[in-house]
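Data availability (excerpt). The following record was deposited with the supplementary files.
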Amino acid sequence: MIISVIIPAYNEEKDIGECIKSLKKQTLKNLEIIVIDDGSTDKTREVVNEFKEVKLILNNHSGPGTARNDGAKIAKGDFLIFVDSDMTFEKNYVKNLIKPMLNNEKIIGTTHDNEIVKNTENIWSKCWGKVRVDKKGAKDVKIFRAIRKEKFLELGGFDSKYGYADDQTFWFKYKLKPTVAENTLCFHKNPENLKEVYRQSKWIGASIDKFDLPFIKYFVPLLMYLISPITIILISVKKCYNNRNFNIFFWMIIFITVRYFGTTSGLIRKFYFKKNFR
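Predicted structure:
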């Protein structure tokens, strides 16, 4: 049995090596690792090429959804696993992620039950949050981390029109949610500087799909600018309260300001320029 791990990468020279090393340490050894370079302009390709057994696909920059689909097309495995290039994993992650599908043929895909941030010493990462997925909230996750290849192709793969959320395509289109696989711990990096925070927020903003009224939506960015002073303060207070940590309030104000205007910029990019990928 072959398991295909698909990793989209766009300018990930700092992290892609650690991700691959973590996968090579998995207790389940029969892994086919496929990296799809999504038009990187840094040294991502050079880093990946240091791992001779890793398959590298070179794409034009078109977003992670397209990259994942291209990886799935050449994958040899019966099961596909989708991870990000800034993730690392506990040694039994892959084994436990596919276990529910091996035990029950009716289960088409799974998600992990514990995803924590690994760079919490960084102040901007700390402002973003320490936990992405916990065991209590995992049941509400709509991202398929593992899925049967046959089913993935049958469903048509991921739809790039959803941008940042393209890995939730099967929920948006078919209301399908993954089964939570137990004991699947992974680690994920948060943005570590304000430039990264802005770019990530811009990408998320360009993927927001909640404004259906074609005329009114063009005024949303302007409205966000007008109400920004009070909104930024309120969001900052709420974030500090939720984190039970008001010692970082000054830094939180800066962080939320950058996120807020990054999101607004993303909305402008989506509404006026029809672009929703990084």
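Summary of structural features: The mean pLDDT is 93.
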